[in-house]
Design a protein that fits this description.
Blueprint (H helix, E strand, L loop, with lengths): L15 H7 L4 H4 L1 H4 L7 E5 L5 H9 L4 E6 L4 H11 L5 E5 L12 E7 L8 H10 L1 E12 L5 E3 L3 H16 L10 H7 L4 E11 L2 H17 L1 H8 L5 H15 L5 E12 L3
Parallel strand pairs: 1-2, 1-4, 2-3, 4-5
Antiparallel strand pairs: 5-8, 6-8, 7-8
Helix pairs in contact: 1-9, 7-11, 9-10, 9-11
Length: 273
């Protein structure tokens, strides 16, 4: 394995409160813009696969093909393997990888997919260059990322506004770009991609159950995940401030008219011959 070229620190880590969100993700709710382009025989690379729920869905959609899920964090791959095994999937494998320097030959995959990855990496343009390199001519590079500055909610809450300001500062101090969704096309153009279809879609949390789940995982994440440690150790927030932000999340979650929307940018890029 070559030395990693990654320079950013993953803001969230893999605390249970983070995985609560990651394991909820499916191909249907997180990669719908890609699904109509899939064919049963395709060979897919899923970058930043995490616990493997999207990876497993992609493998089920290409029964005559194969999916390789890769992640920068070795420990999470055991959970990804368990996810695939629990679904009886035999056309999927997992490996450690750095998206800046993928150890696959040129023109290997029909589709290279990354969900919520480029916002966390040190050089998203280089990451896209590598994704393009390992994609076969005529194949697809598919990327979806949230845009934190575009997240919106009701009712207004000073504590939630403080959360957003704090999160964006911590993420940037870690070397990432939290407002990645709006930048995907620009990054792709800089990476040499030209055949780009840009779209957007949202996650919306508006029912009592959705509000309770979304507010609870962020309230817990604010206090107990790697993000909390990076916020305090980096001098961005005190523990007292994090407690106030956590309680603001819980208070929003108790509002019967509460509504939260997460905007995502998406790009589907075809690699021209």
């Amino acid at each position: 394995m070559s030395k990693s070229q990654e320079t950013a620190v993953y803001t969230h880590g893999h605390h249970e409160s983070v995985l609560r969100s990651h394991t909820w993700r499916t191909a249907a709710n997180s990669a719908a813009y890609l699904l109509d382009s899939l064919k049963p025989h395709m060979k897919i690379l899923d970058i930043g696969c995490g616990p493997g729920t999207i990876t497993a869905d992609l493998a089920a959609l290409v029964p005559d093909g194969r999916v390789t899920g890769v992640d920068h964090a070795p420990d999470i791959l055991d959970q990804a393997r368990a996810t695939a095994a629990g679904r009886g999937l035999r056309n999927v494998e997992f490996a450690v990888a750095d998206v800046h320097a993928l150890e696959y030959p040129d023109d290997t995959f029909c589709v290279v997919h990354a969900h919520q990855v480029l916002q966390h990496v040190g050089d998203p343009v280089q990451a896209l260059r590598e994704m393009r390199r390992v994609t076969r001519p005529g194949g697809l590079i598919a990327v979806r990322d949230a845009d934190y500055a575009a997240m919106t909610w009701y009712p207004e809450s000073p504590g939630m506004t403080d959360w957003l300001d704090l999160y964006r500062r911590v993420a940037r101090a870690n070397g990432g770009e939290p407002d990645a969704g709006r930048r995907l096309t620009a990054w792709a153009l800089r990476a040499g991609l030209t055949d780009i279809t840009a779209t957007s879609s949202t996650w919306t949390f508006a029912t009592a159950e959705e509000r309770g789940w979304w507010s609870g995982l962020w309230a817990d994440r604010t206090l107990a995940s790697a993000y909390a440690a990076r916020a305090t150790e980096g001098g961005h927030a005190t523990t007292r401030r994090l407690r106030a932000v956590s309680e603001a999340w819980r208070e929003w979650g108790r509002q019967e008219d509460g509504w939260f929307s997460v905007l995502h940018g998406e790009i589907l890029c075809r690699k021209n011959v």
